[in-house]
Specification:
It contains 5 helices and no strands. With 156 residues, it is an all-alpha fold. The protein has one domain: Ferritin, core subunit, four-helix bundle (Ferritin, Up-down Bundle). The longest helix is centred in the N-terminal third of the chain and has 31 residues, at 9-39. 35% of the residues are buried.
């Protein structure tokens, strides 16, 4: 069935591709955050364990919103580890780093998601895709705030 929402097929494809990168970054950050939640140790254990849990729970909800926007644009949402590995700008962590390195990596991951969202904005603005712009704005606000909170833990 044709989709007639005022955005051309080519633009919907391009937006969905950008959102697929955002989805991959978000899912990869979710997985990394969950991993760190399980494996954090040290004097900040309780604080970080709880903080990471709140963060991965928020990310779990976000992946659904992003995937649903891709589907609303009429495209399939990527949903495999191989697709996420190909699409994500966030590197997986194979080891169990010290708590401070975990925090640093999560700051970098949060900032990477912001950059991915920001990169998509010009196209979304050009074609008047307000629902995607709203989603991107909300995601950027969450990730910028989370990065700030994580950076605050590293301040001396």
């Amino acid at each position: 069935m044709d989709i007639n929402i005022g955005i051309s097929q080519n633009d919907r494809v391009a937006i969905a591709e950008g959102l697929s990168h955002l989805l991959a970054d978000t899912y990869t950050l979710y997985l990394k955050t969950h991993n760190f939640h399980w494996n954090v140790t040290g004097p900040m254990f309780n604080t970080l364990h709880l903080m990471f849990e709140a963060q991965y729970n928020e990310l779990a909800l976000a992946v659904d919103l992003i995937a649903e926007r891709i589907r609303a644009l009429g495209m399939p949402a990527p949903g495999t580890y191989s697709a996420y590995a190909r699409l994500s700008s966030i590197k997986e962590e194979e080891d169990v780093p010290k708590a401070e390195m975990m925090i640093q990596q999560l700051v970098e991951g949060q900032e990477a998601v912001v950059r991915t969202a920001r990169h998509l904005f010009p196209l979304v603005d050009k074609v008047g895709d307000e629902p995607t712009a709203d989603l991107l704005t909300q995601r950027m606000q969450v990730h910028e705030k989370t990065a700030w909170m994580l950076r605050s833990l590293l301040a001396s």
